[in-house]
Amino acid sequence: MGGFFGVASKQDCVFDLYFGTDYHSHLGTRRAGLAVYNEETGFDRSIHNIENSPFRSKFESEIHTMKGHLGIGCISDYDPQPLIVRSHHGIYAITTVGKINNLKKLEDKIFTHKHSHFMEMSGGAVNSTELVAALIDSKDNLIEGLQYAQNIIDGSMTVMLLTSKGIYLSRDKLGRTPIVVGKRKEGFCASFEAFAYLNLGYKDYKELGPGEIAVMTNDGCRTLVSPGNKMRICTFLWVYYGYPASRYEGVSVEQMRYHCGSNLAKRDKEKPIHIDTVAGVPDSGVAHALGYSVESGIPYSRPFIKYTPTWPRSFMPTIQSKRDLIAKMKLIPVHELIENKSLLLIDDSIVRGTQLRETTEFLYDSGAKEVHIRTACPPLLFGCKYLNFSRSNSDRELITRRVIEEFEGSDVPLETLYDYADPDNEKYDLMVEEIRKKLGFTSLRFNRLDDLLEACDIDPEKCCTYCWNGKE
């Protein structure tokens, strides 16, 4: 994933840029960067590895040395960015959030000009942000270039581009990721997360629509390309990736999660079981669990606590085995709330199942009598084609697909996968029961997609649900 923040101010912008970017640390774990423009000294950029240290500790010196009235910053799970590019458009800095599925095809297309090359290699692959810059530079002006990149990229790409005159904002063509703009008397800011500018004194100004391109300066934010009519915003942002204080398309993340939990409890009333307490797997499962608790009347408790002082979320190794170990080490049991209890845990989702299985074993080892699991979203059956979600690299890493292959063989037709995605189909019930047995849960129920979309409270046609039902 990744996040970004930009500032166009009548005053020096670095303080706002530093803290606004830091507020996106929950969206990326590998790289972070800042780029500013100063009329006297030009462009300045700094990039750091944040795999072992939080953003602020790596960039605290930059707040005193970087100067400028215009700036962009990013948190990234993949490529180092922002990049500073010199082209026939002049010098600019660029940062992106998204995923390019046809990257090799676009590389080859650019190489047909025979005078192109790429400098920023990430793990042997071309840096996606540099590829986007190359696509933009293939056109006569920045607006045409941004539109061209949006149209030719298979996947999703939201772009923030800093020039000496202002900051261009380009939301991906179907609005899978957001760009919101804030305003105060000194200028404007643009952000992935709406909450990131509130404590800096900005008020909500506007939210870009799908495919909209705007230019932001210290005295305004002007639309250059009008938004399209079709939207497919990522629904998983509400379920997991979004910070609780944020909102997308006017819908609060925390409130949506609360409603999800409430809907789960309503479904459980149809097949009641005895539960002593409800708990959320911290942090994203907490609001879901609170909603469940209020709707069901079952007390909410915290039978285990996440240790955060020296284990911030941003410290998460890229090797999966190490990620699982770190996730387990963060959780500290409260034995008095576990021993001889029937616990119901709500997690945001089940991807591979490794962490939740280990959490369940940890609760049994700590004296739990039963561990019932509910998830805030439906079973994940399809790896995301549109955003770089680092939790799963391929469909076969999903526990759902491994179970389905045990039932159906390795070459599963799409129509059969649709059967397993349907909560009213017996194949769905067989899959859920097999997952329950493999992971050692007393019971397992997933949220239904119709209940999830109802909790979002926006037009379902505007929501991307591909990872659950394979529908584009």
TrEMBL record:
<dbReference type="GO" id="GO:0004044">
    <property type="term" value="F:amidophosphoribosyltransferase activity"/>
</dbReference>
<feature type="binding site">
    <location>
        <position position="464"/>
    </location>
    <ligand>
        <name>[4Fe-4S] cluster</name>
    </ligand>
</feature>
<feature type="binding site">
    <location>
        <position position="284"/>
    </location>
    <ligand>
        <name>Mg(2+)</name>
    </ligand>
</feature>
<dbReference type="Pfam" id="PF13537">
    <property type="entry name" value="GATase_7"/>
</dbReference>
<keyword id="KW-0658">Purine biosynthesis</keyword>
<dbReference type="InterPro" id="IPR005854">
    <property type="entry name" value="PurF"/>
</dbReference>
<keyword id="KW-0460">Magnesium</keyword>
<feature type="binding site">
    <location>
        <position position="234"/>
    </location>
    <ligand>
        <name>[4Fe-4S] cluster</name>
    </ligand>
</feature>
<dbReference type="InterPro" id="IPR029057">
    <property type="entry name" value="PRTase-like"/>
</dbReference>
<dbReference type="GO" id="GO:0046872">
    <property type="term" value="F:metal ion binding"/>
</dbReference>
<feature type="binding site">
    <location>
        <position position="467"/>
    </location>
    <ligand>
        <name>[4Fe-4S] cluster</name>
    </ligand>
</feature>
<dbReference type="GO" id="GO:0009113">
    <property type="term" value="P:purine nucleobase biosynthetic process"/>
</dbReference>
<feature type="binding site">
    <location>
        <position position="348"/>
    </location>
    <ligand>
        <name>Mg(2+)</name>
    </ligand>
</feature>
<keyword id="KW-0479">Metal-binding</keyword>
<keyword id="KW-0411">Iron-sulfur</keyword>
<comment type="pathway">
    <text>Purine metabolism; IMP biosynthesis via de novo pathway; N(1)-(5-phospho-D-ribosyl)glycinamide from 5-phospho-alpha-D-ribose 1-diphosphate: step 1/2.</text>
</comment>
<keyword id="KW-0328">Glycosyltransferase</keyword>
<dbReference type="InterPro" id="IPR017932">
    <property type="entry name" value="GATase_2_dom"/>
</dbReference>
<feature type="domain" description="Glutamine amidotransferase type-2">
    <location>
        <begin position="1"/>
        <end position="219"/>
    </location>
</feature>
<dbReference type="InterPro" id="IPR029055">
    <property type="entry name" value="Ntn_hydrolases_N"/>
</dbReference>
<comment type="similarity">
    <text>In the C-terminal section; belongs to the purine/pyrimidine phosphoribosyltransferase family.</text>
</comment>
<keyword id="KW-0808">Transferase</keyword>
<keyword id="KW-0315">Glutamine amidotransferase</keyword>
<dbReference type="InterPro" id="IPR000836">
    <property type="entry name" value="PRTase_dom"/>
</dbReference>
<protein>
    <recommendedName>
        <fullName>Amidophosphoribosyltransferase</fullName>
        <ecNumber>2.4.2.14</ecNumber>
    </recommendedName>
</protein>
<keyword id="KW-0408">Iron</keyword>
<feature type="binding site">
    <location>
        <position position="347"/>
    </location>
    <ligand>
        <name>Mg(2+)</name>
    </ligand>
</feature>
<dbReference type="GO" id="GO:0006189">
    <property type="term" value="P:'de novo' IMP biosynthetic process"/>
</dbReference>
<dbReference type="GO" id="GO:0051536">
    <property type="term" value="F:iron-sulfur cluster binding"/>
</dbReference>
<feature type="binding site">
    <location>
        <position position="384"/>
    </location>
    <ligand>
        <name>[4Fe-4S] cluster</name>
    </ligand>
</feature>
